[in-house]
Amino acid sequence: MSNFKKYTLDFIVVFLGISVSFGLNNLNEKRKDRVSENNYYENLLEDARQDLLNLENQIMVCEQRLNASNDILILVQNNSSIQEIVTLVLKQYEKCQIISNLLMLRMRI
Asked: What tens-digit pLDDT sequence spans the chain (109 residues)?
């Protein structure tokens, strides 16, 4: 009978040890999953911020181009000389290039 008690006690100790080990392993896996999930959400938020910045930059470029087109249209409607129109086109082109370059630098920072 004493062997039975010994084997039963050994079985209970081994069973509890294995159960605790599985429990700790599950807790560790859940912690890793939470860390991965938080990293995913942080990356998603950073991507959204970058996308917003890109959209704002594109809007600025489009607004500048629209303003330039309107200025040129006004000159054409007023029957301005070709030289005035070409001069304005070149100035507006330079402005657009400068703004585009500045926005590209802004995106890199």
From this structure: 578 888 898 899 999 999 999 999 999 999 999 999 999 999 999 999 999 988 988 898 888 888 888 888 888 888 888 888 788 778 877 877 777 777 677 666 5
Look at the block and give the residue holding tokens 């942080």: 42
Nearest to 103 by CA among 44, 43, 62: 62
Convert 40-54 to b/e letters by CB count within 10 Å (16 or more is b): eeeeeeeeeeeeeee
The Cα 8–Cα 1 span in angstroms is 11
For 60, other C-beta atoms within 10 Å of its C-beta total 15
Using the structure block, give the residue that is written with the tokens 């082109």: 93
Q: How far are the Cα atoms of 16, 68, 73, 82, 91 from residue 86, in angstroms, in the given order?
A: 87, 12, 12, 6, 9
